[in-house]
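Ticket #4471: structure export looks truncated?
Reporter: QA, pipeline team
Priority: medium

Steps to reproduce: submit the single chain below to the structure queue and open the exported record.
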Amino acid sequence: MPLEQLPRQEVRAAMQKYAQVTAALREATARRYCDWDWDLHNVKGPQIYAFLLPEIQKCRAVSRMLTIQTRLALAEKRFDDAVKYLQMTYRMGHDVATPHILICGLVGIAITGQSNQGVLEWIARDKSPNLYWALAELPRPTVDLRVATRFELSIGPRLFPALRDAEITRRTPQQWALALGDTVRSLVTAVQSGMMGRQQLQLLASHHSRLDCRHQ
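Actual output as written to the record:
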């Protein structure tokens, strides 16, 4: 919807419900750093599948609210307020992408994309200020997925601890079957406790039966 057609009164009334959320985000934006305190390096085995990210999903909803706030400010030519909302959205995108998880980085990119769209609408407004130097200060890329990619590549050894020293440790076929069988059994237990889905259960049960046959 073009900014000129934005129902300002309705939008303004709807945004009043999020006044406390906006105030909290303004304070969070002023912080030096964001620490989710997830301790991902110690998440191993079935805990990997049980690790949920509800905060990240909520951030997506909050970012959409900030985008609406930005568009309302631009429609009313409140450029100072638009700056604050864009700062909050860019900072949220950066902080969401801080954990070394690909989905967090992708959500961070999506949130940053919403900010970029707001900037484009701002540039198109009549008598809008020059944003060149402000945009020049943004990091490039705004979200770097390389660290998250390297971290997720290490999930295999985390899920199957026997693979950590596979290149330097000698094991008989029976010992490999026992080591992998223990891991698969722990994953089956995770499925039965609700940590994983039914399809993963069927796949792991198949591998589990083959490993038991080899061991026997």
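Status: closed, not a bug. The export was complete when the record was re-opened. Leaving a note from the reviewer for reference: Residues 158-215 form one domain.
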